[in-house]
Amino acid sequence: MSHPAFPQYGVRIKKTSFCDDSVKISDANGTKHFPESWNSNANVFFIDQPVGVGYSYADFGEAVGGTEDAAKDIAAFVAVFFENFSKFKGRAFHLAGESYAGRYLPLFASEVYDQNARLVKAGVTPINIASIIIGNGWTDALSMVLSYFDMQCTAASVAPIMDIASCVRMKQVLPRCEKWVKQSCVDLYDSINCHAALQFCGAELSEPFATTGRNVYDVSKECEGGPSDLCYPVTAHITAYLNSSSTRTLLGVDPSIPTPYSICSGPVSSVFDAARDEERPETPLHVAALLERGVRVLIYAGTYDFICNWIGNERWTRALDWSGHEEFAAQDLRPWNVDVNGVQKRAGITRSAGGLRFATVEGAGHMVGVFLTVLDVELTGFFEVPYDKPKEALALINRWIAGEEL
Known about the structure:
Blueprint: H1 67-84, E1 93-98, H2 101-121, E2 129-135, H3 141-153, H4 164-187, H5 191-205, E3 214-215, E4 218-222, H6 234-243, H7 245-251, H8 266-274, H9 283-292, E5 296-302, H10 310-319, H11 325-330, E6 334-340, E7 343-353, E8 356-361, E9 371-374, E10 383-386, H12 390-402
Parallel strand pairs: 1-2, 2-5, 5-8
Antiparallel strand pairs: 3-4, 6-7, 7-8, 9-10
Organism: Asterophora parasitica
Keywords: Carboxypeptidase, Glycoprotein, Hydrolase, Protease, Signal
GO biological process, one term: proteolysis
């Protein structure tokens, strides 16, 4: 597929053997129907990005140097996609992601929005970008780093997990970290000083967590399998499944791609680390700018996540400088519920004003809405791994897309 406004881009869509989300694969490595899938109420496509992540690759070795570069690629892809699949033109478009998507999506959506002016000028239908949806995201480094004290030393999630002596030391470090990071990362960004500040504060406030043996993505659990498995041994089975020749054929993966699928990309991570991408302070400014232009923003978080926790996300959303700030900040957090067999069950707490909503999903970790079912080749039958709260996550997303209150 191509687009006259983006002559340097070409997009190839390979039709797979799947045509229905209810298809069940039951071979040696497989999946099965997942009733809480987000595509039960929406058309969904997934993008492996930046280049080098997942199955994605570049024909001539092109690379992405940071989120700003990635945003240009995503905006171009979206334009090419909607122009070639014309039946979707004009439909509400929601960008959703989790974790580092807290950095990605505000910039991606901003690029898509700004690109619309060029599309209109070229006589092309603009993208109807309706909202961004960020789950357990990394958006504001200062808020997140400081929140590590709360997650370890207070009952913000589970009972305090760190010893008293360590918590006293962290409490004493907090003012220094807040001042240093604010001065060097926020007020006047200085790459060297900002990096030094975050390295120091990370060592003091987040590294002690490793001594607990807990799962960085779910503080209620022990870390199983070690960091290489992201504390979830099932990742090894997922990797094996996605590397099987039958799966690659079903997904239409180019057979010329020599690199095997991996959960995380070390080379891409190294490039982003070198660019200090996660330290950039302007991401919340993109969120504010989107809100001012009518693009709604949903920030949600599982209460058991440590690394991109709900405390940090609640703080930066409440402090966000935009026209709806006073109304949003004045709102008390209130419960939101889901229906469980005809009974209303508390699912979390929420706050909203204008186009901004913050919500928690209680008892969920970093993988709030993820549910993967794979076959453990060493066992007989399916090895089910329901990550966290898929029903609550689906209710949250469906209500958001429909424009309903929680």
